[in-house]
Write a structure and sequence with these properties.
Blueprint (H helix, E strand, L loop, with lengths): L1 H12 L2 H24 L9 H10 L1 H19 L8 H17 L4 H27 L8 H9 L4 H30 L15
Helix pairs in contact: 2-3, 2-4, 3-4, 3-5, 4-5, 5-6, 6-8, 7-8
């Protein structure tokens, strides 16, 4: 109940224009981090950090839109639309984060737990897409593990899923904990209403 009341207060405090600006910045952050990590072949992505931030502040649907638009715009800018189906992964992450933090406090422990949940959910959704689009490869150094598992007799789903699970746990836990540290450093009046509040 307290979260619903405070969420309504936050809705009054933050204008629609400010929300649009923050969503635009979150999309830009996602795109830049995604490009940088892909170029460096890192075994993580960081391209949902802005999505997580928006989902925590404004709820699951804002986060889902930011996640979807990130993938759409990235595909348009790159001229390759093979990455567009992965918007489903971003949407799932946004919905999980947004709905969870409508109900519970945003602190280190809940951030860690949600990072684990999204880290598992993302490859469950993304692995079939990756197999259909890229043959199970990721374009990162973890492709070595994919090839090793396939040569060891693992099926294509298992060979693709296991490295993705490791990548996504690292990525989602890291992303949400970075967002937590950023929020922790903000003045009290800029923190989301789900942050560090006790039930009345």
């Amino acid at each position: 109940m307290y979260l619903k009341e405070e969420k309504r207060e936050m809705n009054k405090e933050i204008s629609g224009t400010t929300r649009l600006v923050l969503c635009g910045l979150a999309i830009a952050l996602n795109i830049v981090l995604g490009i940088v990590t892909a170029a460096l072949k890192f075994p993580f992505y960081l391209d949902v950090m802005g999505t997580i931030f928006i989902a925590i502040y404004f709820g699951p649907w804002y986060g889902a839109v930011v996640g979807a638009l990130t993938n759409i715009l990235t595909s348009l800018f790159s001229g390759s639309f093979t990455g567009m189906p992965f918007m489903l992964v971003s949407i799932v992450v946004a919905l999980i984060v947004g709905f969870v933090f409508r109900k519970v406090k945003f602190n280190f422990v809940t951030a860690l737990v949600v990072g684990i949940i999204t880290g598992i959910a993302a490859p469950v959704v993304g692995t079939p897409i990756g197999i259909a689009v890229y043959g199970g490869l990721t374009g990162t150094i973890s492709d070595v593990a994919v090839m090793f598992l396939k040569q060891s007799g693992a099926g294509i789903f298992a060979a693709s899923f296991i490295p993705k699970l490791f990548n996504n746990l690292l990525d989602k836990i890291g992303s949400i904990l970075i967002v937590y540290l950023v929020v922790l450093s903000l003045p009290g009046n800029l923190k989301p209403k789900c942050f560090g509040k006790n039930k009345r």
